[in-house]
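If it is no trouble, can you show me the amino acids of a protein and the tokens describing how it folds?
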Amino acid sequence: MEPADVYDPWSPSFVADPYPAYAHLRAAGRAHWHGPTRQWLVPHYEDVSALLRDRRLGRTYTHRFTHEEFGREAPPAAYEPFHTLNDHGLLDLEAGDHTRIRRLVSKAFTPRTVERLAPTVRSLAAGLVGELVAAGGGDLQAVVAEPLPVAVIAEMLGVPADDEERGRLRPWSAAICGMFELNPSEETARLAVRASIEFSDYLRELIARRRKEPGDDLISALVGVGELTEQEMISTCVLLLNAGHEATVNTTVNGMWTLLRHSVRPDVGAGPEKLSTAVEELLRYDTPLQMFERWVLDDIEVGGVRIPRGSEVALLFGSANRDPARFGPTADTLDLTRADNPHITFGAGIHYCLGAPLARLELEAVFGELLRQAPGLRLVEEPVRRPGYVIRGFERLLVEV
């Protein structure tokens, strides 16, 4: 069997457990052509880490080439609302625009912003877990994991509690993130376009409100910076919701499933450092973002394999985080006390996740509350994976207390 044949991102069995295939890819070489996705697969930690920092690759190519020059087709005109929203966000910007916007957003999204949210995050986590415990159990994903980051980002952005659109943040995020999967369908694109229009319209109206009546929130701070266009502010807010929400939800559910499956618990009574170390290991062991794509802007070479300009590489985060060359012979072992843990779940280089401190705050709060309030938590049924591979999670996680 050819190395790339073991990689099948549309197979439920592969999505359920891609790690044996990753081991096969790592053993077979450093770069593998995969015909069905037309991507070069890069499975090793050292290579993934280096390519994330390599400016010969980019999240986009349009800052240097037209679609025709790069050998690619322009996206369908019907997808324009999604691409306008996505292409003005930090995740898909390169060169000068990325540097400018990240610098300006960083002025508003400061450590102080995260610190100010800490009491709110902890209170929300305690309340949501309390509801699960009071009910004797339920769907941990729907009751705890999904509401927490949505409520936090709504608080951070300044979405009023009485706005009916608060309840639409999660569906909007899910619809837009569907476009990040491999070869999204026409229906996925249609839903993403509609969500892009509706979410953008709502944020445009909220920004107008904050121009007239500034508050102590991120949108007011972005307005106050004064150097961002309205579209850049809208795209930034959507990215903060999508990136922060999806990672936190799936790490919470994947992580709790991992703890239950291994019948282990971090010792929350041993102090916050122990819990923090355990959370980092859960982020490494079963990363919520399994693969990240980059365009090759200038020819590169990986392990003696030439990858020409115009190619797309699939940086396999899930494989890199299990690479024995970096994490030793226990790379496939869950070790909640792992001290040397430079996982790349939050990326690296100029696109390192701006919201990583907030994600860590949320995860430590929710795992801490689950372990304190529900020490006897157990599974009701074996959970079923959602079909998505890039953003990998479950349909639900039914538990009882």
Summary: The radius of gyration is 21 Å. Residues 230-262 form the longest helix (33 residues). Residues 124 and 151 are 8 Å apart (CA to CA). The chain has one domain: 3-400.
